[in-house]
Amino acid sequence: MPIPFDYETLRLIWWVLLGVLLIGFALTDGFDLGVATVLPFVARTDEERRLVINSIGATWEGNQVWFILGGGAIFAAWPFVYAISFSGFYLAMFLVLMALILRPVGFKYRSKRASAKWRNGWDWALFVGGFVPALVFGVAVGNVLSGVPFHLDDNLRAFWDGGLLDLFTPFTLLAGLLSVSMLVLHGAGWLSLKIEHGPVLDRARRYGLAAGALAILLFAVGGVFMALGEFGVRIAPGVDPNGPSNPLMHGAVAAPGAWLDNYASHPWMLIAPALGFIGPVLAMAGIARRWDVGVFLGSSLAVVGIISTVGLSMFPVILPSSVDAGSSLTVWNASSSHMTLWIMLLSTLIFLPLVLLYTAWVYKVLFGRVTTEAVRSSADYY
Fold first, then answer.
1. pTM score over 0.85
2. DSSP annotation string for 297-324
3. N or C, which end of the chain has less CB nearby within 10 Å?
């Protein structure tokens, strides 16, 4: 059967799909991470903490599907990117997985004993399970923007030229803090929709205001870093988007400030950073006016805008090299074969709508606020 799309089009489709999956993960499991991060601070008594925990208790496991889908998409569509990033960031990924493992254990074991010390310990474990992944994901994105220390030899063997501590620079830590503030704001937006009005929600709103203001500040400073920093990659002219996937065939050169090129060439892309600023402002206005839907809508727009800004700024680069720009991986030189992308697209067109329908159904069934009375009286709550 002939493939109805040319190679370039399929590569673009998969680049968009990868962005959709990453944004889907941040929109769903992102508020889980944000809620866990603020848990010990917005809820002070055991009953209040159970209220917060049960706002995400019924959906957090399903939300992790997006994380798995995102990793699977990178593996299927961009094998070079998967191999280099997952091996180079191995220790960071291990740290994330260890933190994420604390979540199911914390949810399941927290209420097994009535001891206040026992429950408080698991509450802080849930905090670690929220804060650490949010921070490390942001640091990873900061490293991608500033360039990853790898190079390829003539046989396409990848060599990593950095260590774990090299991942933490002022810019990458800024990106990590931006990620945390963005997800804390998103968590506050979720709590605005899911828990009863009262002192816990009032505290969550205050943390949401602080996180929103910090997100705006850090996003602006990050933009200055991208404009004035010493990182960026520019693709050599004449690259064939339908050419073979060989990272050594499509030249790239280091070009500080290059991440702003796309906005000059395609002004419509400015919508993404605009949403990155408008979203937190809308969320903060919603908090001030007690407009709960507006808080969550604003935090969601912030997530979409900030993550889209990263992807659109770098396009068509996916994983730039900080030590050998010519080894940088792009949409055109690091994808799977034409046939593989087509077969995977057919699979995605079948299964992704099913995931979306099931997710929508779950949220519809579980619609409504968690109340103190329900936490007290129902044996189904954590």
1. yes
2. HHHHHHHHHHHHHHHHHHTTEEE-BSS-
3. N
